[in-house]
Write a sequence for this structure.
């Protein structure tokens, strides 16, 4: 049965994404109208506002967490589809799943079930000039980061528990995110509880454990690939031979919030040091793990168009499923697919 399911998944991916054809990328710079047109052909199904967890926000009020689930337009002999959990950005202070509608439509059109999740946001963030960011309360930032981790993991447990209902192939689960969403996606794989407690002493005593919050589900999952868009981590050595998974990165070298290489977040010395896409890419490369980096030397926070990113991410994930993942480090807007 498992062999039949895997064959069906591969057949679906090949047909929907055109992996047996030459990959054609959308140009990297698009207007807002172009971005809307990039997803205009989507005619799949969307289920909105599915509740998956609850939890207290940073003010202590209960928050109900919801996701939108996107489905491919047609069933092509498959009983289940690979899953992407998509996580919005917003500096852990703001943001909503509705901001990534086009990205989710593109990925569903490429043959994936896509779950766009909300998570608890909010911390004492000062939003004036760049130097004023440095006056923000980094302790409340750590708590916001931790809550996002709890919520993303609760979403994954919920989706695995309801895999049959949502036609999800639990052998193929991927995560993607931008900015704070990228940090959350990376943390799901690379920051276990003991590391979180080491970086943020006492936080689990205050907010509970990472994998046991939001709902009572105990389902497990294994992430097969990550897409990190201008994200960073506390150390590349959190990536080990035991936990490393194929990852595709997008980043601008001039990013002043999430460092491209190694720096304090927002260049604020009282903020933690972050390791961005460049050192994370080379860490994976040193371990022999497939990785792709699209680096724009002239971009700041945000790089490349939605269509360029999502189509390259889809092709990278397709390669993982078919056993032929891409590798490469690009500083010009060329696709990672052959």
């Amino acid at each position: 049965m498992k062999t039949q399911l895997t064959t069906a998944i591969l057949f679906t991916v090949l047909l929907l994404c055109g992996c047996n054809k030459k990959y054609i990328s959308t140009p990297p710079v698009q207007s807002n109208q172009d971005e809307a047109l990039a997803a205009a052909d989507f005619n799949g199904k969307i289920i909105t506002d599915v509740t998956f967890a609850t939890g207290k926000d940073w003010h202590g009020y209960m928050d109900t967490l919801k996701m939108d689930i996107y489905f491919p337009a047609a069933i092509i002999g498959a009983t289940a589809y690979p899953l992407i959990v998509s996580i919005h950005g917003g500096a852990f202070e703001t943001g909503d799943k509705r901001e990534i509608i086009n990205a989710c439509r593109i990925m569903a059109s490429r043959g994936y079930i896509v779950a766009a999740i909300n998570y608890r946001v909010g911390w004492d963030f000062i939003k004036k000039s760049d130097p004023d960011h440095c006056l923000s309360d980094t302790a409340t930032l750590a708590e916001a980061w931790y809550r996002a981790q709890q919520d993303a993991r609760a979403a994954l447990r919920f989706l695995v528990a309801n895999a049959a209902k949502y036609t999800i192939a639990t052998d193929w689960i991927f995560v993607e995110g931008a900015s704070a969403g990228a940090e959350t996606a990376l943390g799901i794989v690379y920051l276990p509880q003991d590391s979180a407690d080491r970086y943020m002493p006492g936080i689990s005593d205050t907010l509970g454990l990472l994998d046991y919050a939001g709902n009572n589900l105990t389902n497990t999952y294994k992430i097969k690939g990550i897409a990190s868009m201008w994200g960073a981590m506390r150390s590349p050595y959190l990536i080990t031979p035991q936990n490393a998974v194929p990852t595709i990165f997008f980043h601008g070298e001039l990013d002043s919030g999430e460092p491209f290489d190694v720096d304090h977040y927002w260049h604020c010395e009282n903020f933690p040091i972050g390791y961005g896409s460049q050192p994370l890419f080379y860490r994976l490369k040193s371990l022999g793990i497939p990785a792709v980096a699209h680096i724009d030397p002239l971009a700041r926070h945000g790089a490349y168009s939605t269509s360029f990113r999502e189509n390259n991410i889809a092709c990278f994930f397709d390669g993982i499923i078919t056993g032929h993942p891409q590798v490469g480090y690009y500083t010009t807007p060329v696709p990672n697919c052959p």
